[in-house]
Specification:
Layout lengths: L4 H5 L4 E3 L2 E5 L3 E7 L9 E5 L3 E6 L2 E7 L10 E5 L3 E7 L11 E3 L2 E3 L2 H19 L27
Length: about 160
């Protein structure tokens, strides 16, 4: 389909003191609100495969070990409208069952409801990829969706 799955079905954000983070099967997105007029020179962002660090105007926003590994040379950050930092991390494990429960190990954890909604979303995204002729963007899911949902790979077509 020409429109990205998340654009049609929305995202499930995990709210934090500095903004929010959310995920797809392939990526983790981090959005950080910063003071209006912030320049890129005032942002120090280090994106490693296993760790991340963000400072704005000399103040540490977050620093720590990521929940899972990422592809560091595909990570990016942008400053949008001088008031929002958007960081995109590419997951190394891109399976629907790889639903991050927190951004950093032990920090910025999704509560049980948000975690449940994130896992449902990733499972629907997996179904969309496996069945490109169908539109799962408005679908609801119940039952066995933990760990990416049921495995249909053994079924004959």
């Amino acid at each position: 389909m020409s429109v990205h799955f998340d654009e049609r079905s929305g995202v499930v954000p995990c709210q934090t003191p500095w903004g929010c983070w959310y995920q797809t099967m392939e990526e983790v997105f981090i959005e950080v609100g910063v003071p209006n007029g912030t320049s890129a020179k005032e942002v120090k962002c280090r994106l490693g495969a296993r760790d991340i660090e963000l400072h704005v105007k000399g103040k540490e926003i977050f620093k720590g070990k990521l929940f899972e590994t990422t592809v560091s040379d595909e990570a990016t950050w942008t400053l949008e409208d001088k008031c929002l930092i958007r960081i995109i991390l590419m997951k190394t494990n891109r399976e629907a069952g790889n639903c991050w429960s927190s951004l950093l190990e032990g920090e910025y954890c999704a509560n049980a409801w948000v975690q449940d909604q994130m896992q449902r979303k990733l499972t629907l995204e997996r179904f969309q990829r496996e069945n490109p002729g169908f539109d799962f963007s408005g679908a609801e899911i119940s039952g066995n969706f933990a760990g990416g949902g049921p495995d249909f790979s053994n079924l004959q077509k």
